[in-house]
């Protein structure tokens, strides 16, 4: 797996609609996972988008989610840099450097989907998500 850097958009309950619109504009394959698919039983949250990824024939990758519980939604502040790849690509070291001197929002650790993941805001105020895919 080659690591990649792409935008990650956050929506206030309409991520599915937005991502379906972007698919109509750019084409490609759209994958959507809901909070319910990962065990959430809260009715208002179960059908909301936990993670969506649009991959186009031109090589564009756009990711998105609805605002997660406990996270704030501030229009104009709804984009994050997402860095993802496999083990051995140096992303663990990148995480350490990006989070140093910044603020860790979610510790870099194994998540419910099985990967290593962390979220931080670097010392310049730029939000980052780093995901290291774990072997099956």
| H and E order | EHEHEEEHEEE
Q: What kind of oligomer do you see?
A: single chain
Please list the strands of the largest sheet in the order they lie side by side.
2-3-4-1-5-8-7-6
The helix content is 10-25%
- Cα end-to-end separation: 13 Å
CATH class of the largest domain: Alpha Beta
Which outline best applies?
A: globular
- Write down the overall mean pLDDT: 91
What does this structure look like?
The structure is a single chain. This protein is an alpha+beta fold and 136 residues long. It folds into two domains: 1-76, 2,3-Dihydroxybiphenyl 1,2-Dioxygenase, domain 1 (Roll); 78-136, 2,3-Dihydroxybiphenyl 1,2-Dioxygenase, domain 1, CATH 3.10.180. The chain has three helices and eight strands. It has helices at 15-26, 43-46, 91-99; strands at residues 4-11, 29-34, 49-55, 61-66, 79-86, 103-110, 116-121, 127-133. Strands 2-3-4-1-5-8-7-6 form an eight-stranded mixed sheet, covered by helices on one side. A hairpin with a 5-residue loop joins strand 6 (103-110) and strand 7 (116-121). It starts with a strand and ends with a strand. The model has no long low-confidence stretch (mean pLDDT 91).
How would you summarize this macromolecular structure in one to three sentences?
The chain contains three helices and eight strands; from the N terminus they run βαβαβββαβββ. The chain has 136 residues and is α+β, with helices and mostly antiparallel strands. The longest helix is centred in the first third of the chain and has 12 residues, at 15-26.
């Amino acid at each position: 797996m080659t690591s990649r850097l792409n935008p990650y958009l956050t929506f206030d309950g309409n991520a599915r609609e937005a991502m379906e619109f972007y698919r109509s504009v750019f084409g490609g394959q759209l994958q959507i996972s809901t909070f319910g698919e990962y065990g959430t039983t809260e009715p208002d949250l179960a059908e909301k988008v936990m993670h969506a990824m649009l991959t186009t024939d031109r090589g564009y990758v756009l990711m998105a989610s609805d605002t997660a519980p406990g996270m704030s939604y501030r229009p104009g502040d709804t984009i994050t840099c997402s860095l993802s790849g496999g083990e051995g690509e140096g992303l663990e070291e990148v995480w350490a450097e990006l989070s140093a001197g910044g603020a860790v929002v979610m510790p870099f650790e194994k998540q419910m989907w099985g990967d290593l993941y962390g979220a931080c805001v670097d010392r310049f105020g730029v939000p980052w998500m780093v995901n290291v895919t774990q072997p099956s």
